[in-house]
Every structure is written in structure tokens, then in C-alpha cells.
Amino acid sequence: MPNRVGVTRQGGEPQRFPTGKVSPTRLDAGDGYVTETGGGGGFWSPFERDPERVLADVRSGYVSLQSAERDYGVVIHQGGRYGRDFTLDTAATEARRAEH
After folding, report:
1. In three state form, how does the secondary structure of the chain look?
2. In total, how many domains does the chain have?
3. Are 53 and 85 in the same domain?
4. Dist. CA 83–CA 77, nearest whole Å
5. Residue 30 pLDDT > 70, yes or no?
6. Is the same domain home to 29 and 54?
7. Contact (CB, 8 A) for 86 and 44
8. Shared-domain flag, residues 53 and 25
9. pLDDT for 100
10. At residue 57, what are phi and psi to the nearest 5 degrees?
11. Is residue 9 part of a domain?
12. CB 3.0-4.6 Å disulfide test: which of 19, 57, 78, 86 passes with 63?
């Protein structure tokens, strides 16, 4: 994904800048600034990545559940009392990758 930049004014919606660049902008108390940077491109197809490594990336917050399934073909379920438990669904992952 390309880089993105945004500013959230106190109590407002985020303002995104289409180019990932911002002209000098003043931030006031309570405003927020977000920089989103693209990840590395890697090598080979993401569908060849070890599902356990994708699971580790989800647990670390590097990859979302949606991206794990869409981009890597890895099905992971979230559960637990606070939604912090992630488990790999091996059968569903194999079926999802077979569709690719």
C-alpha cells in the first residue's frame, strides 16, 4: 500500500491527504497526526507464506484478519474474553488457498 498521511482535528473526522504529503499544517492541542507507511513488497506470492508466520503477524498487529485471508489466504479466528486470542484454521486455510 502507498504511504498516507492524515490529520484529525479535536472531535472531528480524519482528514486524509491524497498524495501522502502535507503542506505545512498547524496542529492545535487535541489534534492528532497519523502517518501510514506501506510495508515491504516481499518475494514470491503471499499465498506461499507459512500460515504460522501470518498468524504471528496478526498477533503482532502487522496484518489484519481481513488482510490475512484476502492477501495471504490464511483463515484466522479471533476469540477469547477480550478478543486477544487468535487461532489458525488449517482446514479453512487449505480450502481458501485451493481457490486461489
Report:
1. CCCEEEEECCCCCEEEECCCCCCCCCCCCCCEEEEECCCCCCCCCHHHCCHHHHHHHHHHCCCCHHHHHHHHCCCEEEECCCCCEEEECHHHHHHHHHHC
2. 2
3. yes
4. 10
5. yes
6. no
7. no
8. no
9. 85
10. -65, -40
11. yes
12. 57
pLDDT > 70 in the chain, percent = 91
Residue 20 in any domain: the answer is yes
93, 75 Cβ separation under 8 angstroms: yes
| Residues 20, 58 within the same domain | no
Residue with cell 498547524: 26
Number of residues in the chain: 100
Is this structure's pTM higher than 0.85? no
> Which residue segment(s) compose the domain that 59 sits in?
46-99
Is residue 78 included in any domain, yes or no? yes
C-alpha cell at 17: 491527504
Euclidean distance between CA atoms 71 and 75, whole angstroms: 11
Residue 32 covered by a domain: yes
